[in-house]
Amino acid sequence: MLERLRTVLIGTSHSGNIGGVARAMHNMGLDDLALVAPRGEVIDQESISRASGADHLLHQARVSQTLDEAVADCTLVVGASARSRTLPWPMLSPRELAARLPDECRQEGARIALVFGREDSGLTNDELHRCHAHVHIPTNADFSSLNLAAAVQVVAYECRMAWLEQQASKAGSDHQKAEKPPASEEQRASHADLERYFAHLEQTLTTIGFHDPQKPRQLMARLRRLYLRARPRRIELNILRGILTATNKAVTDKAGPPPRP
Amino acid sequence: MLERLRTVLIGTSHSGNIGGVARAMHNMGLDDLALVAPRGEVIDQESISRASGADHLLHQARVSQTLDEAVADCTLVVGASARSRTLPWPMLSPRELAARLPDECRQEGARIALVFGREDSGLTNDELHRCHAHVHIPTNADFSSLNLAAAVQVVAYECRMAWLEQQASKAGSDHQKAEKPPASEEQRASHADLERYFAHLEQTLTTIGFHDPQKPRQLMARLRRLYLRARPRRIELNILRGILTATNKAVTDKAGPPPRP
């Protein structure tokens, strides 16, 4: 699915932003970058530095002069847009867009363009009207201008999340089998082990004079609630019981403990 | 809800990244920025340029030398982490973290720290062990290092999405009003209180001969994981500290404890 997504940047001014976009894309598993009429260098020190290891996307990027050329083979074209346009267009949130992708990609030859506009002025109305739908990232109304790489990051992240969900549900029952059970010591302690611990704990608290079984107040109930909420692992319960054993030993040792340094 | 979120950056090297983080935060409606031991300038031409109008966050940012100081009043501390750690910790995706926020914020005085590490090396194990949970952004396994501002962007975006959903459902019904915040003693303990407890615990375990700070193995890390997972309430932490005090008293009491019946 992710290999069917193309990120299209129109009229980008700052090469550093192109590099930042490449990094954001590759981090999320998107590798198809297209540039329309960039307003400066594409590959320079700044873009390579910001790409931070994803500069192969810059070298592979297709550069064209028009949006039409860049998305000619695309079956769905979605343009990033600020909310209000004079002419209302189908508007998706990044999450709604991502939710549509598995279905979109079922079609053979499906290719989806995610189109982002200029740093200063976004997409023109003409460009927006070439899109099937618009995607709007919900931002602070008082400060809505996202950095270009940040906008790509959010949309690419949602696409990746949808892909991961699809992978998980595809794997279906096989997935469950594939998932290794946690190591034995990381497994949750059994009820019986926990009860043994609580008995040991109550005895120890009585020994150190903190608990009076004749006047229990809610002490053990509160401690049970705390420890049960934590769902102790076996290894953790072993440690807790080791502490109780050491406490009993230190307190009942006739010779007394070694003096503290 | 968003005003209860604090973004904490530890040991940031590049002022431009701090500016980029400020922009990402303010775009998503998060305004509380804290910096721990920044490794360079905070306010300079680069950071102001990248903040792109959100530089008031830089001026308001609290700077401290330690993570403990930066999150002392926080009731939930979440650290950004790469997936695999030797000691598995409660791990959330950004979406799972965001889904927890409305409930977390119901408590009076709730404050949530989102902690991000160094550009080159992330958070240390010690820093990660001070967190209740870790948040992992699912990235391309072959190219997993996100730009700092991009990582903040994704987490802040999910927080904003959860907030928008909450606003929408609040508008639908006044259901939320009916739910009372928990009583004071049922409120969650703060980071500072928890750290005091862990120090007290470590001292006590050393006193009873269960722990050797020279050979720590993973003892304190495992105990931290257990207790942080349980999200102790104030009253529970009081009980746990009472147990430690009673243990110390019983052990160091020269006369020895009364014989057990």
UniProtKB/TrEMBL annotation, chains A, B:
Renumbered to this chain, region (Disordered) spans: 169-191
Listed A to Z, the keywords are: Cytoplasm, Methyltransferase, S-adenosyl-L-methionine, Transferase, tRNA processing
One GO BP annotation here? methylation
Annotated tRNA/rRNA methyltransferase SpoU type domain residues: 5-157
Q: Where in the cell is it found?
A: Cytoplasm
**What reactions does this protein catalyze?**
uridine(32) in tRNA + S-adenosyl-L-methionine = 2'-O-methyluridine(32) in tRNA + S-adenosyl-L-homocysteine + H(+); cytidine(32) in tRNA + S-adenosyl-L-methionine = 2'-O-methylcytidine(32) in tRNA + S-adenosyl-L-homocysteine + H(+)
Q: What class of enzyme is it?
A: transferase
Q: What is its EC number?
A: 2.1.1.200
SUPFAM superfamilies for this protein? alpha/beta knot
Taking the first listed entry, what is the main subcellular location of this protein, grouped into a coarse class?
cytoplasm
Presence of keyword Methyltransferase: yes
Q: How does it assemble?
A: Homodimer.
Q: What is this protein called?
A: tRNA (cytidine/uridine-2'-O-)-methyltransferase TrmJ
State the organism of origin: Halomonas piscis
